[in-house]
Amino acid sequence: MLILVTGGTGYIGSHTCVELLNNGCDVIILDNLVNSEREVVDRIAKITGKRPLFYQVDATEAAAVDAVFSAHPIDGVIHFAGLKAVGESVEKPLAYYKNNLLSTMVILEHCVKYGVPRFVFSSSATVYGENEVPFVETMELKPRSNPYGETKAMCEKILSDTASRNPEMSVALLRYFNPVGAHESGLIGEKPRGVPNNLMPYVTQVAKGLLPELRVFGSDYPTPDGTGVRDYIHVMDLAEGHLAALEKMGRGVHIYNLGTGRGTSVLELITTFEQVNKVKIPYRIVDRRPGDVAECWADVSKARRELGWTAKRGIAEMCRDAWRFEQLHG
Ligand code: NAD
Ligand code: UFG
Hints:
Layout: E1 2-6, H1 11-22, E2 26-31, H2 39-48, E3 53-56, H3 62-71, E4 76-79, H4 86-91, H5 93-113, E5 118-124, H6 147-165, E6 170-176, E7 178-180, H7 199-207, E8 214-217, E9 229-230, E10 232-234, H8 235-248, E11 252-258, E12 264-265, H9 266-277, E13 283-286, E14 295-296, H10 301-307, H11 315-329
Parallel strand pairs: 1-2, 1-4, 2-3, 4-5, 5-6, 6-11, 7-10, 8-13, 9-14
Antiparallel strand pairs: 9-12
Helix pairs in contact: 1-2, 1-8, 3-5, 5-6, 7-11, 9-11
The protein binds nicotinamide-adenine-dinucleotide and uridine-5'-diphosphate-4-deoxy-4-fluoro-alpha-D-galactose.
């Protein structure tokens, strides 16, 4: 299969490219490099021994996207390209709606035009909003507290409506929980620009001494130790989930949670990181971060049943691999 990976030099996209190339797929990356570096293509080639084609193209620009689709017989698209910083989306809602909605529409339009049968979309557990855990794909979605989450819910709707008018298409809406960790080579991983918003990259930067201490947002949640609970998933498990979706999904629209089904608190994650990597993480409890939910974890039975996919790596491997990447290339 020849797979077009938008956002393929980004964090999750780069790991998925590795997984695709290692499993016999050919890969074209389309990325405008707004949040990643061209060098990632070399790293992917170093890991896999195969070089993906790379186009520095903005997915919202129809003419440039058309040139890529018209030049290659694409069998499937994985659409990672998007802006993802929740806080920034509150500051710049229009930039988020424009980039995330338009890129999805332009890529989808070209899939229809060129008869590309498979489309895999990066959605997020954020679409569940304030629901009861564990989150199940059949739940009614609750309103989100930020424009980023809204773009994901809107893209899911656009994709579902389009697929229902194009019965030859297979669409997977993959709702990621909290992707962390890195490829075990330490060559690719998560490299946020500026001060990280997310827990794991913040922890690795504290461990390296780049930041003085971690602020733990809230210790009065109704959780076993009072800190927020999330379903962290190793990015390579997530990458494997994309391959499973591409290979196994039938026609029509299919929604899958990609998580481990297990919740971990902030304090548990810190303790595991310290034990596995033999480093100290100084931290301080501060107020809750606005917009955070107490708990978020997945019911993962549908992906196991229908895709034969299940996450294999635990929190210790996530902490070990995230730290290795930070030390080598962070
Ligand atoms: P990332 O920022 O590392 O990767 C996204 C990539 O898309 C970047 O390389 C960026 O340069 C590119 N991009 C953005 N807008 C583009 C455009 N208009 N045209 C072309 N390229 C563009 O983010 P990530 O963590 O790898 O996330 C990938 C996808 O998964 C995103 O859609 C994100 O919303 C979604 N997601 C991420 C998480 C997470 O915690 N990382 C959780 C749930 C969902
Ligand atoms: N946290 C801290 N200190 C920090 C950063 C985070 O205590 O410096 C806590 C948060 O309060 C939360 C947990 O660590 O309890 C995880 O926070 P992240 O920011 O790493 O992740 P979120 O669960 O808030 O959000 C992430 C992505 C979203 C995505 C969502 C899906 O950032 O894009 O997972 O569940 F939508």
